[in-house]
Amino acid sequence: MDSQSAWLYRGEWRYVILSPGHTVFFPSGTIHFVFRVQGVQTFALGGHVLQWSGIERWLKVVIAQLKNPEITNEDMASSAPKYVQVVKRLVANRMKAGRVEEMGGRDAVARLSTLLK
User: Fold this and answer.
1) How far is CA 40 from CA 19, 24, 37, in A?
2) From the CB of residue 107, how many other CB atoms can be counted at a distance below 10 Å?
């Protein structure tokens, strides 16, 4: 079991305190909270980056959020189907081009295909 799985499935939390100039990157599907010190200016940028290697994990999180809408602060019922359809097309195009290794190989693509149905 990798380090993340070891603490994630035991329900443990981890935290990082960032200092000025530090950067943090969360892979797609990482559940996170952000707290900041009151009275201190904070500059933060956010965005969504979905890597080929993270599609399966992202889909599992999306499925969990659709089944349990109280675990997210987004309206997944309206946004998730749109995202999933885009990813489905991207995966299909990648498969047609024979580029399955970039998505984790044949086994990973088979799991993705099941999740994307």
Assistant:
1) 12, 19, 6
2) 9
| C-alpha to C-alpha distance for 70 and 51, rounded to whole angstroms | 26
* Domain ranges within the chain, ordered by starting residue: 52-115
How is residue 20 written in tokens?
């000025």
- The Cα–Cα gap between 50 and 37 comes to 30
Token output for 14: 């981890």
Find all residues with CB under 8 Å of 60, minimum gap 6, and list them.
Answer: 29, 115
* 28: its two tokens: 């797609």
CB-CB contact of 60 with 115 (8 Å) = yes
- Other residues' Cβ atoms within 10 Å of the Cβ of residue 30: 14
Lowest model confidence (mean pLDDT) among 28-37, 48-57, 85-94: 28-37
Is the pTM higher than 0.85?
Answer: no
Locate tokens 């799991």: which residue?
111
